[in-house]
Amino acid sequence: xxxxxxxxxxxxxxxxxxxxxxxxxxxxxxxxxxxxxxxxxxxxxxxxxxxxxxxxxxxxxxxxxxxxxxxxxxxxxxxxxxxxxxxxxxxxxxxxxxxxxxxxxxxxxxxxxxxxxxxxxxxxxxxxxxxxxxxxxxxxxxxxxxxxxxxxxxxxxxxxxxxxxxxxxxxxxxxxxxxxxxxxxxxxxxxxxxxxxxxxxxxxxxxxxxxxxxxxxxxxxxxxxxxxxxxxxxxxxxxxxxxxxxxxxxxxxxxxxxxxxxxxxxxxxxxxxxxxxxxxxxxxxxxxxxxxxxxxxxxxxxxxxxxxxxxxxxxxxxxxxxxxxxxxxxxxxxxxxxxxxxxxxxxxxxxxxxxxxxxxxxxxxxxxxxxxxxxxxxxxxxxxxx
Amino acid sequence: xxxxxxxxxxxxxxxxxxxxxxxxxxxxxxxxxxxxxxxxxxxxxxxxxxxxxxxxxxxxxxxxxxxxxxxxxxxxxxxxxxxxxxxxxxxxxxxxxxxxxxxxxxxxxxxxxxxxxxxxxxxxxxxxxxxxxxxxxxxxxxxxxxxxxxxxxxxxxxxxxxxxxxxxxxxxxxxxxxxxxxxxxxxxxxxxxxxxxxxxxxxxxxxxxxxxxxxxxxxxxxxxxxxxxxxxxxxxxxxxxxxxxxxxxxxxxxxxxxxxxxxxxxxxxxxxxxxxxxxxxxxxxxxxxxxxxxxxxxxxxxxxxxxxxxxxxxxxxxxxxxxxxxxxxxxxxxxxxxxxxxxxxxxxxxxxxxxxxxxxxxxxxx
Lengths: 386, 366
Known about the structure:
The complex is a heterodimer of chains A (386) and B (366).
Chain A lengths: L5 E5 L5 H14 L5 E7 L6 E6 L19 H9 L8 E5 L1 H12 L8 E6 L7 H6 L1 H14 L7 H4 L12 E4 L8 E5 L2 H10 L5 E2 L1 H29 L2 H7 L8 H5 L19 H11 L1 E4 L3 H12 L8 H5 L6 H15 L23 H18 L1
Helix pairs in contact in A: 2-3
Chain B lengths: L1 E6 L3 H14 L5 E8 L4 E7 L19 H9 L8 E4 L2 H12 L8 E6 L7 H5 L3 H14 L8 H4 L11 E4 L10 E5 L2 H7 L5 E5 L4 H21 L6 H4 L8 H5 L19 H11 L1 E3 L4 H12 L8 H5 L6 H15 L23 H4 L1
Parallel strand pairs in B: 2-4, 4-5, 5-6
Antiparallel strand pairs in B: 1-7, 1-8, 2-3, 6-7
């Protein structure tokens, strides 16, 4: 948050897309940064891919807010910078959830942000990938409406309960979209790098943000409530082993949720490794013990294992759900579990680059109640054995 | 001519009777079959060891949640089964298994392979929505008449290899007009005869060949051409065909023939550092980040085409609905024709890329 809650108004006309492109073009022409990493469309095709664009006029093909999230932006930034920084100053324009995932990957050593300027933008959500795949033109029209009028019921379920759709704290610069027919965009710096962009553009943060902030806060409040309700319902449907098994019963064990997840960065997943390769004998004994064994085995174990590995960093971006071939509400379940775990550690993934992941921090005194419940186990065991 | 055992029962019941007989007599220790799992209507492959648990088995349910070959390979990769197991699989799954065995990705030892002439399966999404049950009457009607059932996956509607190769036992379904009250169990191997010995039924002779089968093959061949035309894989440029690809690579993950433990695209082999992207950008004004869909898709086709058995799972799981099954059929067909190779036909037919012939493709060499 800017200290005196001020931002700069960048004057531009047209829809949100045109205004943002105008800003990026101006910034490139002034040399504020050398290139932009942004979803762009190859002319004449429907493909939307993260592209590094250095030529001002090619930014016309950019989609600062594409109708869908074909690839999670954090993955793109990781692809670009994982092996080290380059020579150019690159602005990455991504959705808030993509930014938060980027920050998590930064903490996990999977991105290098030295030469990257992270820019986020007020996000109205994204449409389900399947809708776009079915009819890209129709999806784009539907999304144009959303950009104009605000989020509606067409956006993905996970986006409908997203309460972190605006500035999240760890960006260098946030783009606020003013209400209704107002023109221009609000540039809200959040770091020295962000302030340098304003300086380079020759504009000052003199615009009062209270009107914009009020709208963001209002929608945030509504979303928090909607999320609470949705999660309560989901919890009732999926809590406990039996219900969880039911929730994931259509899982075909393809692991696609893991492969599109920005946080699941392991080159080789434990669940694809030899650790999960057993002898026929083992499978047969397991089948005999339960009179039958579902194959491939351990589908639920995979999801629980994945949760255990990444839920503290889960940013509820919904990529997993978009990619699931059997329409399991993966993102909603992971978001529910992730939120609970994050609350327990008072941790918000992607909120701050300086906030270490909880599992990296040792605190002598924490979770005593958990400790005690475990301390009680041997006693119970003794009672049973005795 | 093979021996045929006739039972006066509908096909599914008949197959269950065979499986129950094998389990109860102790001739097999387990049965690998599709089965209902849990209470939510899901159907998945299962390894069943208790005859009572066969109650839930649905060996002929027209759904392919995963390719059975992939599962059987995983089960037998480290070592073969020490005990006899009966596996009920579809003809294309059996072909995939044969291709995997050629690549040392499993073992057929102690497996009794049971298959059937196949009417195809419904898309995974139809299965998830629980809509297959209501389609079953129409499905079996089509099987009886040797027609293409409505709404089955395009890969199945276009499949001409619906009579299994290399099955020990073949259940004759296509063209059996009494499929709901009578079944024909064809015993193709000595092993099959030994296993079926003792199962009550009327023994005769026969073969899964008939006019109905020939005519269905012709119908499917015609449909294949229609579908390929409809999806325009024939003349489209690859850029267009793969334009929506998000490179999630789920097609590779579910593909029975893509067996590499670490895919090239997970190996780091296609990764670049930031300088590379910057240089590319300087040349063209932009550079796309992440593996390019075309590169990935072409490399995959390059790796699997020769063994692609057209099971269609790649298209079934694609989150952006690229008709990958059509691409695979087209490319696989072309590559296999060039080498006069039919994947999964014969275990002893060597893989073209591992077979050296001093004289071949003279035109290419020149």
